[in-house]
Amino acid sequence: MAEPKAMLMDAAQMNRALSRIAHEIIERNKGVERVTLVGIRRRGVPLARRLAQRLQEFEGREVPVGTLDITLYRDDLSELSSVPQVHKSDVPFKLPGKVVVLVDDVLYTGRTARAALDALLDIGRPAAIQLAVLVDRGHRELPIRADYVGKNVPTSRHEVVEVHLTEVDGEDFVALYDLP
Amino acid sequence: MGGLKRKDLLGLQELSAEEIDLILNTAEALKEIVTRPIKKVPTLKGRSYVTLFYENSTRTAKSFELAAKYLGADVVNVAVGSSSVKKGESLRDTVMNLNAMGLDGIIIRHPQGGAPHLAAQAVSCSVINAGDGIHEHPTQGLLDMLTIRQRKGGFRGLKVAIIGDILHSRVARSNIHGLTKCGAEVWVAGPSTLLPPGFEELGVKVCTRVEEALEGADVVNVLRLQLERMERAFLPTSREYHRFWGITPERMRLAKPDALVMHPGPLNRGVEISSYVADGDQAVIQEQVTNGVAVRMAVLYLLASRGDAA
């Protein structure tokens, strides 16, 4: 990929944002007793694990983490030339009575979050669902907003926000690129 | 993007090892849906499929039907016995008429080998072979492979014994094509009247004694004796067949202690397999049935995009 147009976050900023989000989750839910985290594949999953680590540090309590693949719930399957690969979803805990914090890297049109809501509700009926994202770049096409945001970034539709994570990409940073 | 770049699934002979791997991976991801309380995803919402069966079947037809429904599609079943086929309509005309109703796929079983291929050439929608004569039964081959892969972790270096009525078995042919491509060693054994000539050319070891094939096997796939296809006298009696070829606990001792026992169903208990083995700890026959739904979901999903790709 070409040179980034702008660096939006480095590793330290990302760490601070995640710590703040973890504190906000605790504050909003008055502890983490009922809180569970579900990462949306792919980069939402390591982010959910990192949040779980912080929740454990701050509250001394283990928070269960699940994985959600939203492929089967996409609304654009009939528009794609080839179906995307399906991966396993794994939500190894019961949802009723729990608060599920959905975790994703970037919130853009809101269509992924919509698909994730449908996917999650087919698995069970949690007490509440909240949304945490590392970057909100605007341009919503559906009435969806995040409860926890690492950084708000005004962007144009001709740009791409890329989140790089150590677990997937070898290093931590968020950058803005022009669409090729 | 990871769909199958083909319109139809006609057999495992024409699939690559990579395509088989893609289907099995997808099936593994989709299998979870079968165990949910709410067994429906919206993925194929608005798509419709027909099952067109010219031969009897409970398992395969219902397995396809459920697979399509779990993915949100609509399914209609054509019972050939009460259809226009009875008025003499040709296969080609039947599938062309079904296609004209706006279907996305025809799932076909036919006593004649090659019938799905003929149908596939006649229509623009997908055609999925659910068993054609003694030729192929690709989704059975795939579900057997998924069961083996989940239990054994892979195929390379495994010894898979396929025992019984090889001649009439489309299950054996699909298994052989799929397993040899993915690196397993396939041994077939059966009475000489039920062993077709030239099978060595498919890359399998052909044995005329059941013990030879069972020795050290990791998987024992027991075929159903297809009495309905036996127009001539292939065997003296079912009892004699059981004595020489039946899979019994004694014979299973020749295989590895953790060998799997598989059977495509329906079981002829006391003929090709004894009840002790069929109901024993090594049998994974129910798992095969569950995997059948998962594999068929995967095939429907992976073929679903091709219309737009063309």
What does the model show?
The complex is a heterodimer of chains A (180) and B (310). Chain A is an alpha/beta fold and 180 residues long. Chain A is built from 4 helices and 8 strands, in the order E-H-E-H-E-E-H-E-E-E-H-E. Helices cover 28% and strands 27% of the residues of chain A. The N and C termini of chain A lie close together (9 Å). Chain B has 310 residues and is an alpha/beta fold. Chain B has 12 helices and 9 strands. The A-B interface holds A 69, 71-73, 77-90, 118-119, 122-124 and B 1-3, 5, 22, 25-26, 28-30, 32, 36-38, 40-43, 46, 71, 301-302, 304-306, 308-309.
Q: Which key features would you list for this structure?
A:
heterodimer; A: 180 residues; five-stranded parallel sheet; three-stranded antiparallel sheet; globular; B: alpha/beta; four-stranded parallel sheet; 12 helices; 9 strands; 15% strand
Q: What is the quaternary state of this protein? A: heterodimer
Q: Percentage of helical residues of chain B?
A: 25-40%
Strand order of the largest sheet of chain A: 3-2-4-5-6
- Our estimate of the beta-strand percent of chain A is 25-35%
**Separation of the first and last Cα atoms of chain B:** 15 Å
Number of helices of chain A: 4
* Overall strand count of chain A: 8
Strand content of chain B: 5-15%
Specify the biggest β-sheet of chain B: 5 strands, parallel
In what order do the strands lie side by side in the largest sheet of chain B?
7-6-5-8-9
Instruction: Quote the average pLDDT of chain B.
Output: 93
